[in-house]
UniProtKB/TrEMBL annotation:
GO biological process: amino acid activation for nonribosomal peptide biosynthetic process; secondary metabolite biosynthetic process
Source species: Thermoflavimicrobium dichotomicum
Residue span, AMP-dependent synthetase/ligase domain: 1-298
One GO CC annotation: cytosol
Source organism superkingdom: Bacteria
Annotated protein name in UniProt: Amino acid adenylation domain-containing protein
Length: 356
């Protein structure tokens, strides 16, 4: 979590490359697998000590050993196309090996810019980069701030784990857009309720990564009634977010995990095992179609064909089989009902039990 990481990511993209974030805290075996499976040609590390022992890419660049004053300063000519892969993020795999999701430039751009945008982000907003680069919530945080000309505050990992220290940062930096997994926010809210002063500048809290219990938001809403609390269901394979629901007092009273409706450019189907639409109120599996559906899994054609399937309702279009259960509510919103398989989520991280 550093300024250099942001510079590195933007540099890779401007050079026409694809970036693949690797957490140095990952087990050596997982790092080696990611490097080998991705066929990475270039490895960018901060220090020499961070180079993996078990082999690396064709070429390694050590940030601290480069004399940047001697490098070319002119702006690069853009060679990237909308259909080029912008990043690969590895998620847990049920076979014991993680799988790399290939997300294209156009998938990301339409998430933040479309003709029916649900958000009013601007250059006056201050965002936090709270999440790991290996968790795609960080994609939303980073580009949400930078593409709108806002300010991005990089949260040190130790601060991210300390609710009191993180609240101090929110005050000090005047943060206006806060993105949180529900688990992290519950702890943050408990800490904030110890203070009498209501002096935070946060105007939107956006939840993602795991199921939300709206009843847990009551205290925050009472203290900060003007703050929008927005629940967004999403998956790496469909580019961060899929649905949008502003949480009101009604949801807090019923405590239903209401994930709302599909965001612009996406469509959600709730289907039975034969891929038939189910009636309102009936449980089924969610399938997602539209411009956020990514290219698929790197080097996994069979798995890509299994999960990225033909849309029976729109010829020539693909849809992603999520493995998540939901049902339509009478008001047109979706209620999240959990997984169809043995995948679990811890602090927003997808974990396939088969990988353990």
């Amino acid at each position: 979590r550093s300024l250099e990481m942001i510079i590195g990511i933007l540099g890779v993209l401007k050079a026409g490359g694809t970036y693949m974030p690797i957490d140095p805290a990952y087990p050596a075996e997982r790092i080696q697998y990611m490097l080998e499976d991705s066929g990475a040609r270039l490895l960018l590390v901060q220090k020499k000590a961070m180079i993996p022992e078990a082999g690396a890419a064709e070429k390694t660049l050590i940030w601290d050993e480069i004399d940047w004053t001697q490098e070319e300063k002119t702006n690069l000519v853009n060679i990237s196309r909308p259909e080029d892969v912008a990043y690969i993020i590895y998620t847990s795999g049920s076979t014991g090996k993680p799988k790399g999701v290939m997300v294209e430039h156009r998938n990301v751009v339409r998430l933040l810019f479309n003709d029916r945008n649900l958000f009013d982000f601007s250059e006056h907003d201050v965002w936090t980069l709270f999440h790991s680069f290996c968790f795609d919530f960080s994609v939303w945080e980073m580009y949400g701030a930078l593409l709108y000309g806002g300010k991005l505050v990089i949260v040190p990992s130790l601060v991210a784990r300390d609710p009191k220290a993180f609240l101090d940062l929110l005050r000090r930096e005047g943060v206006t857009i806060l993105n949180q997994t529900p688990t992290a926010f519950y702890q943050l809210s408990q800490e904030e309720m110890k203070r009498v002063e209501a002096d935070l500048m946060v105007r939107k809290v956006i939840f993602g990564g795991e199921a939300l219990a709206p009843v847990q938001l009551k205290a925050w809403k009472n203290k900060y009634p003007s703050t929008q609390l927005i629940n967004m269901y999403g998956i790496t394979e469909t580019t961060v977010h899929v649905t949008y629901k502003e949480i009101t007092e009604q949801e807090m009273e019923t405590n239903v995990s209401n994930i709302g409706q599909p965001i612009p450019t996406l469509k959600v189907y709730v289907l039975d095992e034969q891929k038939r639409l189910v009636p309102i109120g009936v449980k089924g599996e969610m399938y997602v179609s539209g411009d956020g559906v990514s290219r698929g899994y790197l080097n996994r054609p069979e798995l890509t064909a299994e999960r990225f399937v033909e849309n029976p309702f729109v010829p020539g279009e693909r849809m992603y089989k999520t493995g998540d259960l939901a049902r339509w509510l009478p008001d047109g919103n979706l209620e999240y009902l959990g997984r169809i398989d043995h995948q679990v989520k811890i602090r927003g991280y997808r974990i396939e039990l088969g990988e353990i």
